[in-house]
Amino acid sequence: MLKRLPTVLVVDDEVRSQEALRRTLDEDFEVFTASGADEALAILEREWIQIVLTDQRMPGTSGVALLREVRERWPDAVRIIISGYTDSEDIIAGVNEAGIYQYLLKPWQPEQLLLTLRGAAELSRLQAENQRLAVDLKASAPVLAARAGERRGQLAQRYALDRLVRAPDSPMNALCAMVERLAALDIPVLLTGESGTGKELLARALHFDSPRAGEAFVVENCGALPDQLLESELFGHKRGAFTGAFEDRVGLFRQADGGTMLLDEIGETSAAFQVKLLRTLQEGEIRPLGSSRTQAVDVRVVAATNRDLEAEVRAGRFREDLYYRLAAFTLHVPPLRERPMDIALIAQSLADETGAALGRRFAPLSRELVACLTAWRWPGNVRELRNEVLRMAALADGDTLSAAHLSARVLRAAESEQEAALELIDGLQGDLKTRLDALEARILKEALIRLRWNKTRAAQELGLSRVGLRAKLARYGLERA
């Protein structure tokens, strides 16, 4: 199939000028000619014309007047005018009124004319392509909207609180119940706890269970960037605001407008940045770097930190007014060592997830492996546990994860715990009942000390009621000094 040449309509009342233009353009364009405005309009009625090239001074209607009508009736046609008069007021006004693409002076040069019309043809092609894309986009808008809604539904399901892995007696249950209550309340929440405990997962659950679930959820690690870059990331910047700012940038607050933003490691920010963040939270508006205008934003802010912000406030390292802006409600995420009942379940979930990613299916974790995992205190929390599962998966020969492939430090902890248990049993005296009572008293005391004498959590961990725990404490004379 032959490719059709771009079409051009040459309008000139002088026949010699028409022919000269035709000879110059004939090889690259399909050329139509007209001697005046009426003839040109008739051709435009019946032919698809991409470019209109007209002389300015003609009997009757001028070139500018013709192009003004062309713009109204055939706005996609690219309009070019030729004139021998450089000071024509009609042409100067027509550049805007008639939307003239180019103004050529007589005598024109063939190379210049061809270059101008090739540019006009490319412009016509791009305009047509944009129109097709606009039509396609409009037609696909319902499909895209449906896909976006489906994606939001998938995310909401993925980060639902009931999918957070935990045991029936886990302290995470009370925390998840509180997150569920807070989700519907559009108030700032501060998540505290050690790194790797799952603060971001809870923040996502808070968002996707809230009325803002249909909008964006944005995360920024405040401890990873210096002040200027952090401000640029959050508030945006104008071109030239600082060295390297070659174009305008929309900040994360604008991207999260209507949704939720997680400011992770908020305790690592400087005093200067805290002042600017406080203003944003107070006024509900941002000002991009290098701009004199503010922009209103509607964002729910969830902050997270592994620091004790109250201690930071007392030490003068964190603004008290900002702290109260962020901590309308504070949730503490316990470390993994304080919820040993969750370790086996989380490890099994991570093993299933890793196996699916590798195209393998691992067998349920053995008792020996679970015992080794629960013996370690997991200073890196769930993040460290994930690394151990990945390590075992990488070294596994079959479909079984082996304790032999754990890191040396985890294995040493399991061996030390076994030795300590043997020493404990060896040190007990008396008959079986006496030894069991002494062992039970030691277990109770160890749990209470580790949980800072929180009797409710100790009872949950040991599978006792509060009444039963109090009875045992009274029986063994275990009271906090």
From TrEMBL:
It holds the Pfam family AAA_lid_14. Residues 165-394 form the Sigma-54 factor interaction domain. Residues 7-121 form the Response regulatory domain. The modification 4-aspartylphosphate is found at D55. It comes from the Bacteria. GO terms for molecular function: ATP binding; sequence-specific DNA binding. One of its GO terms (biological process) is phosphorelay signal transduction system. Keywords: ATP-binding, DNA-binding, Nucleotide-binding, Phosphoprotein, Transcription, Transcription regulation. This is Sigma-54-dependent Fis family transcriptional regulator.
